Amino acid sequence: MCSPSTKSKKTFVRAIDAASYRRHAIHGEGRVWAETNCYTDLLVELLHGLGYEPSAMLAFTLAIGFEGDQWTFFKPSLPDLYALYGLDVQELALWRPLHEHLVEQVQRGNPVLVEVDSFYLPDTAGTAYGTTHQKTTIGVNEIDVALKRLGYFHNAGYFELHGDDFVNLLQLAGAPHERVLPPYAEFAKGDASKALRGGALVEASLAQLRAHLARAPRENPFGGFRERFEQDLAWLMTADLSRFHAYSFATLRQYGACFELAETYLRWLGGNGVEGLAPAADELHAIAETAKALQFQLARSMARRKPLELASIDTMGAAWERAMTSLRARFA
Fold it and tell me: Please, are residues 279 and 326 in contact by the beta-carbon 8 Å criterion?
């Protein structure tokens, strides 16, 4: 059993220096949406950090739709991860203290994806660190219990935390309150011999594209979104900034960031010999940009209590229709 007083033993899945780590281009300069959602961003950087190309897994982004009070919270398909990279993601049962499981799995070469409190994550400085308790998911790559150091993937990069943040994040200062439930955790077992490269990776990704297109909404989701958005504006115009952020994250950011990833996916395919995808990619890029602009417009309208013009939703709906019609004609 490992405890905070255990003799120092550095454990890591892959040797990564947080100070010199270079994030994937998906999180690089010039993106419309710098971040997407915590789970997808984490998987992008985890795959990148392990030496794989995350763009190949992005076919799932084409299948999202409007879900009534939010857009689909888009996440990589776990079977897709295994098929492309030999990465088998399984739930981790937490029956011991969390840090003991982290040491156990990391020593076995398995990154651990675990829900934690952003209050103790230094990389969230300016948003949640030391100010707000928010759930998020990190990917633990390195842990040294004696030195109180954790190396982890989170959002758009790779980071380290130390000292009190380590103690508080992993609840080592004392026994957790009996009403504090264990977090949800997964571990990723990698089999490098099953990871695809080159043409084999492209072909497997195209197969996933066909499967996810079959799951995509048959009816244009922007019609339903516009109808609900018009209804929601009645209470949004009297809501505070925190409600704006929550609403925007569940709607505008979800589909805007997702369709930018879909654009990235099509351009990756294009860069690997799959021709004719640029027009659909351009349509998806237009959706991402228009969603970002609408987010700013909504914030201004709420601040000034002024009406918001929604014609841009129709524009995005038309762009979605053209992109999906083109892709279905090619791959369905």
Answer: yes
Architecture of domain 11-194 in this structure: Alpha-Beta Complex (3.90)
pLDDT per position as a tens digit, 217-255: 999 999 999 999 999 999 999 999 889 999 999 999 999
Question: Using CA atoms, how far apart are residues 216 and 258, in angstroms rounded to an integer?
Answer: 13
pLDDT at 304: 92
Q: How far apart are CA 53 and CA 25, in angstroms?
A: 10
Are the C-beta atoms of residues 81 and 56 closer than 8 Å to each other? no
- At residue 177 the predicted structure's pLDDT band, cuts being 50, 70 and 90, is low
Confirm whether pTM is higher than 0.70: yes
SS (H, E, C) the chain: CCCCCCCCCCEECCCCCCCCCCCCHHHCCCCCCCCCCHHHHHHHHHHHHCCCCHHHHHHHHHHCCECCCCECCCCCCHHHHHHHHCEEEEECCCCCCHHHHHHHHHHCCCCEEEEEEHHHCHHHCCCCCCCCCCEEEEEEEEEECCCCEEEEEECCEEEEEEHHHHHHHCCCCCCCCCCCCCCCEEEEEECHHHCCCHHHHHHHHHHHHHHHHHHCCCCCHHHHHHHHHHHHHHHHCCCCHHHHHHHHHHCHHHHHHHHHHHHHHHHHHHHCCCCCCHHHHHHHHHHHHHHHHHHHHHHHHHHHCCCCCCHHHHHHHHHHHHHHHHHHHHHC
pLDDT tens readout for residues 26-58: 999 999 999 999 899 999 999 999 999 999 999
Locate CATH 3.90.70 in the chain.
Answer: 11-194
What average pLDDT score do residues 81-88 get?
97
Q: With left for phi above 0 and alpha for psi between -120 and 50, is residue 256 left, alpha or beta?
A: alpha
pLDDT at 7 (0 to 100): 45
* Residue 320: how many other CB atoms lie within 10 Å: 21
| 206 band by pLDDT with thresholds 50, 70 and 90 | very high
Express as a percent the part of the chain with pLDDT over 70. Answer: 95
